[in-house]
Design goal:
Largest sheet: 2 strands, antiparallel
Number of domains: 3
Helix content: 25-40%
Order of helices and strands: HHHHHHEE
Number of strands: 2
Radius of gyration: 35 Å
């Protein structure tokens, strides 16, 4: 047997119509619909003021955004970016700080958002996995039983704990990165 699906507005309408019947018990109805009495009275009030349309969810968008960048500052950011396409948000902020008031000056992050909305920012290409920039995969095929040998140059003399003799500078040092395996230095 499939689930019975009901829309939120239909449930609220059903609740309100039952609540407006003469002799309806609001507490019992709210318990039946698993809502608080405060929410139940709010829905009844909305129905009285706006009908069925009043039962829909209201917008959560703020009525005003006092920290939003003004249209003039957005235009100045876009004009400056068009004149200098390689400048990023930090540079644009520094240049705009010389000419604009501190109250009207958008932040670096706001400038970045303005550029993203205007489509003036290209996303960077992600580096491919592999040589040195990302950790190698840890699959069974990548683990070999043979000892791995790493080579590096010694800019200064290096003293090995087991061998008190220091390596001379700029000599190739071979070593095994795995613990317990040691390859002697080349002569």
């Amino acid at each position: 047997m499939p689930w019975r699906e009901k829309r939120v507005v239909k449930l609220r309408e059903e609740f309100v119509l039952r609540a407006l019947e003469p002799g309806a018990n609001m507490s019992a109805l709210c318990r039946e619909y698993s809502i608080s009495r405060k929410t139940g009275y709010k829905w009844v009030q909305r129905f009285r003021e706006g009908g069925v349309e009043g039962l829909a969810d209201l917008s959560r968008r703020p009525h005003c955004s006092p920290l939003r960048a003004s249209g003039e500052s957005v235009l100045r950011v876009l004009e400056l970016r068009q004149a200098h396409p390689r400048w990023g948000p930090k540079k644009l902020h520094a240049v705009l700080a010389r000419t604009m008031d501190a109250d009207d000056l958008p932040s670096i992050r706001t400038i970045a958002r303005i550029l993203e909305r205007a489509g003036m920012v290209r996303k960077r290409c992600r580096r491919r996995e592999g040589i040195g920039n990302i950790k190698p995969s840890r699959t069974a095929s990548s683990r070999s039983r043979a000892p791995r040998i790493s080579a590096c140059r010694s800019p200064r003399g290096r003293l090995d704990r087991r061998n008190p003799r220091p390596y001379p500078p700029d000599r190739l040092i071979l070593g095994a990165p795995r613990p317990g395996r040691r390859t002697p230095p080349s002569p």
